[in-house]
Amino acid sequence: GFTTGGFRGKWELGTPVTGPGSAYSGLNAWGTGLDGGYQVSNESILYSPLIELLAGSRPYLEYRSWFQTNDRDEGLVDVSRYGWDWTNVDSLVGDRADAGFELRRVDLSAFAGGSIQVRFLLRGLNPPATGWFVDDFAIRGFGAPLQFLDPAGDDDGDGLSNRDELARGTDPNT
C-alpha cells in the first residue's frame, strides 16, 4: 500500500476534519493533517506502491486534489522508475481551496514499459496552512474500458442518443 515519509511530514489516511471537511468520495482521503495544518519547515511525502505500466499503453495518473498552502509552499507530484531519480509531472502552489477537490490528470506514457512509483511531496516553508488532501488515486489508460450503455440513453446530455453517437463514431460520454 501507500507509505509516508519526509522531514516532519504528516500524511495521514482518514476522514478530514479541517480543509475540505470530507473525502471527495467515500469516507477517507490522504491529507497532510486531517485535524490540523502542516508544520513550518516540513517535507511531507506520500509514496504509492510500485505500479507496472505496460509497454505500448498510454497510461495516465488521475487523482482528486484539495490544496491550500501559503504562496511559497508547493505540492509536487513526482514519478520514479527506480525509487531514487524523481521526475516532476505535476505541481501546485498557493491557495486553491475555492476549486474544491480538483480532478487532476497527468500523462505517464513516457514511463510505459516499466515499474514506477508516484510520490506526493508537500514542501511547507512558511507559517502553516491547511495543507493538501488527495483522493481517488488511479492509473488509467490501459485500453478501452468496457461499458454497457442504454442505446436510447443520452449519457453526455448532448441531445444525441448513445446509439446515434456510436453510429456516428463519436463518444457517448463526452
Radius of gyration: 19 Å
Assembly state here?
A: single chain
Q: Specify the overall morphology.
A: globular
Helix content: under 10%
Largest sheet, strands/sense/barrel: 6 strands, antiparallel
- Name the average pLDDT: 86
The tally of strands reads 11
**SSE order in H/E notation?**
EEEEEEEEEEEH
Structural class: mainly beta
Query: Which regions contain 5 or more consecutive residues with pLDDT less than 50?
Result: none
**First-to-last CA distance:** 33 Å
Q: Hey, roughly how much beta strand do the residues contain?
A: 35-45%
Individual helix count: 1
Key descriptive features of the protein:
single chain; 174 residues; mainly beta; 5-stranded antiparallel sheet; globular
Could you give a short description of this structure?
The protein has 1 helix and 11 strands.
Structural overview:
It is a single chain. The chain has 174 residues and is mainly β. The protein contains 1 helix and 11 strands. The strands form 2 sheets. Strands 1, 4, 5, 7, 8 and 10 form a 6-stranded antiparallel β-sheet that branches. The longest helix has 7 residues, at 162-168. The chain is globular and about 55 Å long.
Describe the SSE topology.
Blueprint: E1 3-7, E2 12-14, E3 29-31, E4 42-47, E5 51-53, E6 60-68, E7 74-80, E8 86-93, E9 102-107, E10 114-124, E11 131-140, H1 162-168
Antiparallel strand pairs: 1-4, 2-3, 3-11, 4-10, 5-10, 6-9, 6-11, 7-8, 7-10
